[in-house]
Design a protein that fits this description.
The protein has seven helices and no strands. It has about 230 residues and is mainly α. The protein has one domain (about 5-215): Methane Monooxygenase Hydroxylase, Chain G, domain 1.
Length: about 230
């Protein structure tokens, strides 16, 4: 690898590390908000989250441009090209996680019935903890070529899906049929949206894990049974 190419890859990995840390910080802030058991989010916290979201958007554009430039200028060989394509895929998925976090926080702020919100928080917290762990392990898998963590992430997506579906059924069968006010209806709909968006975070973590496997092993495991592979 030439010195210039080596520097380009080093810069890419450095930017990706900073970028992924910002997204993960947003996830931890979301976890803190949900653990507070309140839908009230201070303006200071909200402004900080929005500021970080803008940084995420900027890093996505920067990394995408660096990937293109590296391909054009340095003619990467097969394993290097796989790393670049994986980085590009992971960057896109991390940016979408950032968007989902913002959407979840906006919905929390618009909750009308705080008591009902608090009552249903346990399930939301359960699915969030798993989803955050999936993001963390998928990134660790890429950075450390750890395929065990990548496979763990992919397999846990089914668990998140199951929790998600159970929550929606619970809302429909036990809550929506017994609502007494418009505030309750609005809150239940927002709760379903929040859980659906957390489930989508887990989906993005799965995509990152699949990209990590592609980068390390050269295998495209998207839409395939990981156990059979």
């Amino acid at each position: 690898m030439s010195i210039k190419k080596e520097k380009a890859f080093a810069q890419l990995k450095k930017d990706f590390s900073v970028f992924s840390n910002i997204v993960f910080k947003q996830l931890r802030q979301l976890e803190s908000i949900i653990n507070s058991e309140s839908n009230i989010i201070s303006e200071e916290v909200y402004e900080t989250i929005n500021k970080q979201e803008k940084e995420i958007d900027k890093f996505e554009l920067k990394i995408t441009e660096e990937v293109i430039t590296t391909i054009v200028l340095y003619s990467p060989v097969a394993n290097e090209l796989r790393q670049l394509m994986a980085l590009n895929r992971m960057t896109a998925n991390l940016e979408k996680i950032g968007d989902l976090i913002i959407n979840i926080i906006k919905d929390i702020r618009k909750i009308d019935d705080e008591k009902l919100y608090t009552k249903l928080l346990d399930t939301i917290n359960d699915i969030l903890i798993i989803s955050i762990s999936m993001v963390e392990k998928s990134l660790f898998a890429f950075k450390n070529n750890d395929m065990d963590y990548a496979i763990w992430t992919i397999k846990n997506d089914d668990i998140v899906d199951e929790i998600h579906h159970s929550f929606i059924k619970k809302i429909i069968k036990k809550n929506l049929l017994n609502v007494k006010s418009q505030e309750e209806v609005s809150t239940l709909i927002r709760m379903m949206t929040i859980v659906s968006n957390i489930e989508r975070i887990a989906d993005k973590a799965t995509n990152i894990a699949e990209a990590a496997i592609f980068s390390t092993m050269g295998k495209d495991v998207r839409h395939k049974d990981i156990d059979k592979m």
